[in-house]
């Protein structure tokens, strides 16, 4: 996508509860991170959440040259500028940048992530190896990651999350499991598109990917 003549990567998460959950705990969330494709650093982060009675609409703009971020709370019409570190990222662009990090079972790492106009500590633990069965790709060998943080992320308050990342060079998120006060949400990878010639994008209609993408299985 382009923004003011600048080509950026846009990553969006949208979540909406079904008719049954709407009665107990309605959810209608939109989260977007615009990322510089050369540095993998965020340019703008938007968070618009509606979960139960909770509401927020926030936009953070990053200026990495000056080392400052500008936070705008649209619901309260409040603006705040605060210093950021060289590798400061929002949660979404941080998850995207993790694709460049080698992850092995038993490893753990501590990072700084921006949320709610502050910098927070975020710990990532690699728990175990586990295959994820995807409709279009078969079983994919993945590593289960557990983020632990002290801020409001994709879901607010008492939520918890696990992420499955493919155990290959791509490190694609194959599954996410999110627990909120009255529900348990599972997200599965549906499709991979874009450039490339590896097993994720080549000949997708004729084959599936076996664990670690090492063997073709004809339908």
Describe the protein in words:
The strands form four sheets. The protein has a seven-stranded mixed β-sheet. A six-stranded antiparallel β-sheet has the order 3-4-5-6-7-8, with no helix packed on it. A two-stranded antiparallel ribbon has the order 1-2. The chain contains two helices and 17 strands. The radius of gyration is 18 Å and the shape is globular. The protein has 219 residues and is mainly beta. The two termini are 36 Å apart. The protein has one domain.
Structural class: mainly beta
Widest sheet, order of strands = 9-10-11-12-13-14-15
Shape: globular
Low-confidence stretches: 153-158, 205-219
Question: How would you briefly describe this protein structure?
Answer:
The protein is mostly beta strands and 219 residues long.
Keywords:
single chain; 219 residues; mainly beta; seven-stranded mixed beta sheet; six-stranded antiparallel beta sheet; 2 helices; 6% helix; 54% strand; disordered C terminus
Topology record:
Blueprint: E1 2-3, E2 6-7, E3 9-16, H1 19-24, E4 28-35, E5 42-51, E6 54-63, E7 68-73, E8 78-83, E9 89-90, H2 91-97, E10 108-115, E11 118-134, E12 138-149, E13 160-166, E14 173-180, E15 183-188, E16 207-209, E17 216-218
Parallel strand pairs: 9-10
Antiparallel strand pairs: 1-2, 3-4, 4-5, 5-6, 6-7, 7-8, 10-11, 11-12, 12-13, 13-14, 14-15, 16-17
